[in-house]
Amino acid sequence: MQKIFDSPAAALDELLFDGMSIMSGGFGLSGNPESLIPEIRASGVKDLTIISNNAGADGFGLWMLLESRQVKKMISSYVGENKLFESQYLSGDLELELNPQGTLAERIRAGGAGIPAFYTKTGVGTVVAEGKPVETFEGEEYVRETWLRADLSIIKAWRADAAGNLMFRKTARNFNPNMATAGKVTVVEVEEIVAEGSFDPDCIHTPGIYVDRIVLSTINEKRIEKLTTRPKEIAA
C-alpha cells in the first residue's frame, strides 16, 4: 500500500467533510501538524469537532480554524490563554468539553486500544463528574469516563519510513502517538522520510499499522508559545 503523498492537500484528499471529528496532535505549539491545519482551513469544511490538548495560539495552529469559524466544538484540556477561543465560547458560538489533561490523554489512549470506558478519581465531586456514573472501589469513589475516537487524526512526527513507522522528537512526543491510534484515518506529516528498514525496531514510537497517509512537512516553524529567558550572568 502506497502511503506517501506529494503534498498536504493530496494527503487530505477525499477525507474531509462537514460535521466530522478531528484529533490534532500537539502540546502548546510543540508537535502541531503545522502543514495539515492550513489545508483543512483552505478546504472550507465546517462544523468540526476538534479533539486537541489546546486550540493553538494567536495566528498559529488550530487558532486558524477558530478564526475561520470552522470549529463547532472543542474537546480540550488547556484553553486558558487563547483570547479568540475565549470570545467564541463566551458568546455561545463554540461548544467546549473541558477535560483534566490526564483524563483527556487516557480517553484518547482508550479509544485507540478499544476500551469503551474506564474509571478515574480525577474530577470526582466537581463539575467534571456531572452527569457521569460514579462507582466505589475499595472505599473510594471513581468517575466513569468514555473513550475518544475521531474520523481523522492529524499528526506531526519527526521521521517516518515508507511503511508508516514513526519516530517523534522530544516534547513533540506528547498527544501525537496516542492520537495516531484513535482515528479512523491517520494522516502524518513528518520532517524526514527514510528508507524502509532504516529504523531500529526498538526506537519506533508508533508502528506503521496505525498510519494511513504520510507527507513531508511544508511548514516547520516550531514556534515557542511563551519564551522565558534570564539575564546572562557576568563571569567574575
Automatic annotation (TrEMBL):
InterPro entries from the xrefs? 3-oxoacid_CoA-transf_A (IPR012792), CoA_trans_fam_I (IPR004165), NagB/RpiA_transferase-like (IPR037171)
- Which EC number(s) does UniProt give? 2.8.3.5
Q: Which GO terms describe its molecular function?
A: succinyl-CoA:3-oxo-acid CoA-transferase activity
State the UniProt keywords alphabetically.
Answer: Plasmid, Transferase
Alphabetical list of SMART domains matching this protein: CoA_trans
Domain of life from the UniProt record: Bacteria
Which Pfam families does this one have?
CoA_trans
- Supply the NCBIfam families for this chain: pcaI_scoA_fam (TIGR02429)
Q: What is this protein called?
A: 3-oxoacid CoA-transferase, A subunit
Q: Which organism is it from?
A: Rhizorhabdus wittichii (strain DSM 6014 / CCUG 31198 / JCM 15750 / NBRC 105917 / EY 4224 / RW1) (Sphingomonas wittichii)
Q: What is the lineage of its organism?
A: Bacteria, Pseudomonadati, Pseudomonadota, Alphaproteobacteria, Sphingomonadales
